[in-house]
């Protein structure tokens, strides 16, 4: 078992990483002194595998637990679906001592977290991420949100869970492409913060891709640690936390322009990290071996380096409307070396255009 | 000019109370180092009086300010209207350095605060309350919310403004009944926390009802101070803050049962405070002169002591569903003396029924 603590004063919590911790959910909740009602929010895929089992184990442990299933997919992150979950919460009588449990991937975590953050002005929230992407990224750090029809994640909060439970067992049934998308974020942590971790990833590619439990446990733990240390210093993303957006500026433009779903998040981030590394090199911020190292690790992990389904002119427009812009400037996270970043808000448009052209398959 | 500070660590802010501070809004915002875009949310009543004037003064001071008007009334506090404001915020390009300005009464403050708390996971928020009720109650303390069709204020956050600007001048045009409803909350502060302040209110009834500016300034300041001191000790309403709900348990049942709008909030709170004082006396918690004092001050301020449009059996049902219940118990705020409270969660149903019967006009 691994345990990563996230130290945020009165909002501190632990991330527990274990092989079969879902089987002990009731005991863990008892140890954490949870009582009362629990609303488990899940999607129809994950919920059909684990939902009923968890609900009935909580029921037999004396909790009043109910399960609410949503459709899988990004469209579920809407105020409309949130309203349905609120209705469920009210009719089952959830109060401020009750908890919302998010059982699933990033969509479920973001939606359920938004409910927990805003229902009765905030009730306890428990994250049980079941995809690698959610385990290493969205379940850590307290960003919760729903989408607006004009953009992703525009409505939300910074709201920390009381505990994050990561059951490695949930990764055994994860589709391959979902594994790779999570690994893109894992690689990101190495690139922005820990060259030794990147080396580990390069040296243990086979174990990781074969889902060796101890390799997965280690990379989840290290990813959560890196993210936790960043979030501890800048919970509300006023400065340092921006480095977690490495690769995401171009990624958001790819996702939006190709249509959400064409590239999944990790694939878009992989291409975006490649692009950011190229920009870093062309600006003279790093040596040529930095983009080469980025290309090598991404290729090892079956992740794309280039895109084909996007229009560069439209992407340029999208980049300017990126919600991370402040006062109209895009804040680029760039590399000065493997494991070291800098923020740059004056990347010339021409250079961005040039790099996007290189990223586009001819 | 009076200035009340609300000390909440990194979320601290000032409440500025002044005769014509709206005319200096642009200077105040400059002093507070606000820059960039401003979305002013107001309703069609208040907005038609002050909205355009403020928007154009901000524009000429160099801000990009736009006005968004909502319908007056409780129905505006919905996710549906919130979604419209989000659309406005996105299309005008509000970013994390922009601000939302709530110009109006409690409905506008609660809605705009919910937008500010959740748009891009939180952007700066400025309260410009224009009703006495909002000035002494809803604009202070950071409670923001919208309603769900199954209940009021069920979706929201604790989100503090950056500054509260109270222009006494806005009270000159306030309808009489709106003045009285605010005074109910003012009286509440005396009853729960400061017998000297209650004495002031009894001795200066005429000045207050004649809207003497220095009397209004003092009572707003004292009300804000009392609320601020409570909120500082318990921002998230886990214990002490509950005393601010004095009178509100019965009030919520009156409002819900009579239909929202039949009694306004202050009227319902007045009747509720009378009821809570009676319960306190019948439980032996205070002397008989406590409910007498409550009746006297409420009557002086033209506030009702009894109701006629409610069904007691239905109210009893509502009381049990009150959202302040935790683990199924109603937390009653009761008086042990004028200016002193206690929380009691075991008031017998029969006593509640008896008191509601006394409050009902035959």
What would you say this structure looks like, in words?
- The structure is a homodimer of 362-residue chains.
- With 362 residues, chain A is of the alpha/beta class.
- The first copy, chain A, folds into two domains: 2-173, 3-Layer(aba) Sandwich (Rossmann fold), CATH 3.40.50.1970; 176-359, Dehydroquinate synthase-like - alpha domain (Dehydroquinate synthase-like, alpha domain, Up-down Bundle), CATH 1.20.1090.10.
- Chain A has 14 helices and eleven strands.
- Chain A has helices at 25-31, 44-60, 79-91, 106-118, 132-138, 176-193, 195-203, 205-209, 213-233, 248-258, 265-282, 289-300, 312-321, 349-359, and strands at 2-6, 13-18, 37-43, 64-70, 99-104, 125-129, 143-148, 151-158, 163-167, 332-337, 340-344.
- In chain A, the strands form three sheets. Chain A has a seven-stranded mixed beta sheet, sandwiched between helices. In chain A, strands 7-8 form a two-stranded antiparallel ribbon.
- In chain A, strand 1 and strand 2 (13-18) form a beta hairpin.
- The radius of gyration of chain A is 20 Å and the shape is globular.
- The termini of chain A are far apart.
- The mean pLDDT of chain A is 93.
- Chains A and B meet through helix 3, strand 7 and strand 8 of A and helix 3, strand 7 and strand 8 of B.
